[in-house]
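TOKENISED FOLD:
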Amino acid sequence: MNSLNTASLVNLLGFTVGVALYALLLVMVVRHRKAKDNFSFDLLLLATAILGLLWNVGELVAHIWRDFGAGQVSPVLLAISYSALGFLPSVVVRVAWKNNGSENKNARLLTFAAYGLSLLATFFHFQSVVFYKIAPSSLALQILTVGSLALLAGLLVFNFKQTLENKTIWITALLIFAVSAFHLSSEAEGTSWLVELVAHQSSLPLVLAILLQDYRFAFADLFLKRALSLLLLALTAFGLYVFAVSPLLALHAKHEENDVQGVSILLTFWIATALIYPSLHRFAAWLVDKIILRRADYARLRVDISKIIEKENAIENILGETCRSLASALTAKESNWNQNSENESNLPTVNFTSNAAEIFVPTAELPAYKIHLKDFSGGRRLLSDEIKLLEAVALLTARRIDALRVTGERFEQKIREQEISKLAAEAQLSALRAQINPHFLFNALTTIGYLIQTAPEKAFATLMKLTALLRRVLKSSGEFTTLSEEIELVESYLEIERARFEERLKVEINVPQDLKRLRVPAFILQPLVENAVKHGISKAKLGGRVEISAKLESEKDKVFLKINIFDSGAGVNFDELFLNRQKNVGLNNVEQRLRSYYGNAAVLKIESAVGEGTTAEIKFPISNSRANFREIRYKEEN
């Protein structure tokens, strides 16, 4: 094996990288067809990939063949590889016009000239093989040199409107081909590694330009990271060889070629290169994601999507925002979602093809949903990072939808419970209300029956009052009334009772005028007044008086209305009072209605003492506003 010099190392590494890039370009062209038809390839890119492979594989085989000293390289192989190189400038011209988007007569002429130039060079290569058994042909390479410069001038003149970025790419490619052909025709190879790099690796800028332009995302995702890692590794190995290994080996030039020190030096730097590779690969990945593709930060994107959908309270809006965010981040030209009524929890969350993705949103209950992303820009492919992103976003979306459903179900359940409670309370109140009217009517009729026997004229007058009272009672069907109407009802009842007790019953009502407009439960006072007359006044030989008073009190930022009904009757002891409360239908009715309306905030309290009379007190809230309380108190005092 010949000793490796720097130029030879450059060529070996360059052709290896070229084979990898053009092979991957060929795979991409085959996989990324224009349609589902097996033969709908982009013929220009397919031809470029094949030509690049022929050139790099042929030269790689030739260099290895020479280095191993296996003899003369086949001139046919060299003719094929150099002919392939000669067609690459034609590809440059064709792609340049393709990117401009408007072909005209000048474009077609320049394209035909480029292909004619390549065919002419190919003819001279194979002519040299047939007649002289030599390849490549110096004349063919000189024709390519002059032709590349002429094509360069033509592109500058006829493709003037193209952007500066594209001009730079294609001008650079043609200049490199011109320098390459000139160098190869001079038969002065191996003199300078820099010249070797420019001359023999002239096909690399072309494949990189095509991949970055037509398959930007696919190129980066499928192999740019690995290719860049390989390139960085090659440059690192080359740098270590040139600046470290070669000088150290030069110190041992007088020793045997395979001495222990020389081998140790090579092994040390081989191991160092292997240890450096992970860092080089991470740097290549960062460079591709952040600098070339400017790919979004997926961790940040998940947080942003989570914040966006947390603000939405409708499933349609959640899925719509998720579709828009994913389509923007993954450069999908089309995105939508649909409802899925089948249980697919056992299937993968993300299913994808070369140009579409289907994301299953695994909600806890059916229906579930699917998000569809289609037509990725730049031939983008979904790799592991994108799959992880889509799986995470699918779970985020599913959990948000589940939370929204649970919240909605709880809200609906609460509404149903409130409706049921309301209906139950209304039924209970209606039943309690129904108890009052017959009870009151029974007592009134008992009084009239007594008057018929003792005072018929008073009985008739009392009957008229009862008729008016019943008309008022039956007319009022609401659960609440004003305190004024409640007082009037009590006064009418006491008028009927006064016909029975005559001078033995006295009535005092002390209710401020401003309080009479307050809303109170209907028939809340009459049972208490009736209880005072029946159990207090009627049992006292001399009768007594009934006092009704009302005032406002404030407790813990709430305003309460307190109403007292006092009778100066005989009074009872505690045991008798407790027994009466248990049996008294009217009192139980009042207590239950207060509890239904106000809960524990309402109080019914009865106190009695033998010979001193009885006091019934009810207190319930009427407002949460202290300002309302101060306003009413001010009116009372003034």
